[in-house]
Amino acid sequence: MKEKTYIKNLMSGQASSNFLAISVLVSAIIVAGSIVWGVKSLQDYFSNLGRNILGMRPPQAQQPQQPQPPQPPAQPPAPPPADVVDLSQVAEVPPYRVKGNPKAKVTIIEYSEFQCPFCGRFVRDTLPQIEKTYGDKVKIVFKHLPLPFHQYAQKAAEAVECAGKIGGAKAFWALHDKLFYEGQPTGRLDIASLKEFAKQVGLDEKKFSQCLDTGEMAGVVAKDLEESQRLGVRGTPTFFVNGKVVRGALPFEIFKQIIDQELQAGG
Prior knowledge:
By secondary structure, this protein is of the alpha+beta class. The protein folds into two domains: 1-56; 87-264, Glutaredoxin (3-Layer(aba) Sandwich), CATH 3.40.30.10. The chain has helices at residues 2-54, 117-134, 153-186, 191-200, 205-213, 218-230, 252-264, and strands spanning 98-100, 106-112, 138-144, 238-241, 244-247. Strands 1-3-2-4-5 form a five-stranded mixed beta sheet.
């Protein structure tokens, strides 16, 4: 009986020891896992904290670089437009496109088109002041630069060329003023309106219609356009005042300053 009791107690003690050992082992695993989880959480916390406060990003695995296709060579930048132009590079125009004294000391070459509102502003506001102030000391030379995004500009340019061919300088400048004072502000630059304006300034309707409809003067306009591109004229209106470049519909005072300088220098 004593032996059975001893064996029972012995087995009970071993079971308790085994249970204690297993409990310690499980506790150790739980503690170790908690430590690992805690360290990982701290790393994530400080990583996010640095990214939010300092704008930093956690390090990322490097991606293998893909081979880049060969790039075409960079185009050289376009040269800046000149401030002074050699007037010997500017072609002569038909006599009907010259307004004022042909022997004037100051020549203003104007690259313009009839649908451009800034061109109209120059003709209506600035040009009359130039003519009134300087009279026969200044002459105006008109050059065509119809912009491609203005649908009526090309035919309007051809129209005034037809007027000049048929009726000379008087007809050219009469239709020029008609388009800038009436056509351009109201948007009436379509073919029918061009013919109506030509009739109003006294041009022969049949001759004008034939000239305009056949595109007879398109080549004349194209020569001005090619010249403007070669000389670096990039917009309308652009002016050469004795070769000095003026861009845009600037106020009369700007033109006056340049014209006065040219007259004082002897033209």
